[in-house]
Amino acid sequence: MRQHGVALVVVLWVVALLSLLAASFGLGVRREARLAGYHVQVPHWRAVAEAAIHYAAYRLKLPDPQLRWRAEGNVYDWRWDGVPVRLRLADESGKVDLNQAPALLLQTALKLAGADEQQAVELADAILDWRDGDDDTHPHGAEADDYAAAGLDYGPANRPFRAVEEVGMVLGMTPDLTRALLPWVTIHSHRNGIDPFSAPPALLRALPGIDPEAVEVFLRGRREGKNPPFPVIPGIPIHRGQSQVVSMQLRVGEGYALQVAVRIGPERLDYLEWQEVPLADELFAAEDSSAAKAASPEAMSRE
């Protein structure tokens, strides 16, 4: 009897082990199937994204203000081949150029990203030290000795920024502050100031010494397609005229996200940046609750 009992226990253990192996195998098969399906979908999503980029460029150039899309951080919904696309458009001339902007404008962008007054002053000077070609330290900046004292094995590049993400290497920048700063800065405008006709409203409202009422009057006129004057702000250069470089963030379907910067010419698009990014739910979180307000009422679709 004891031998039969032992045999029964062994059989039960073998059955349990086989069941576990079968479940593990089934899970692996399902995972592989999902992965294979994702890789099949990616080329389709990428093609849809490229179609959306060209369509957005077309809409940005339309003469009719009722049909023309705006690149002031606006978000639009679109659909192609049954795939939903969400786009955020921003004209680079309305952003703060890391390679050209003066300290006061850099401080404005940093405070928008969450830096306090002292942080903004110090980081703006450190950005100036990173991009200039000398070893002279700005009053609150950082040169090679400061990076070494902080335990870093690199120093300031002493050249222009080659990508906006490079600002995260500046002494004092944190990952969270870098992520919050990136929407406000560029390397593509090549101007020391901003164009108020394409700058995000939040950036205009944050400019130092600006009259809040004057900003709202200007923004109202801008929305109505008028040509209102923008207040003069000491230390903040103001330019008029779009750079023709537009950054776009895209969410395609449920599994693909992309950031690009394109120069929109009369006959063609030139891609300056193309970066596939992890699909984060927060990419458009602020707009998801009010997408209908931003979306074009007659945005075309192809089913």
TrEMBL record:
* Entry keyword annotation includes 4Fe-4S: no
Predominant cellular place of this UniProt entry's protein: membrane
InterPro entries tied to this protein: GspK, GspK_central_sf, T2SSK_SAM-like_1st
Its name, as the record gives it, is General secretion pathway protein K
Q: Which family does it belong to?
A: Belongs to the GSP K family.
Ranges for domain T2SS protein K first SAM-like come to: 99-187
Going by the entry's taxonomy, the superkingdom of the source organism is recorded as Bacteria
Set out the biological process GO terms recorded for this chain's protein.
protein secretion
| Cell inner membrane recorded as keyword | yes
Which Pfam families does this one have?
A: T2SSK_1st
Per the record, GO CC terms? plasma membrane
* Cell location: Cell inner membrane
Keywords of the record, alphabetical order, are: Cell inner membrane, Cell membrane, Membrane, Protein transport, Transmembrane, Transmembrane helix, Transport
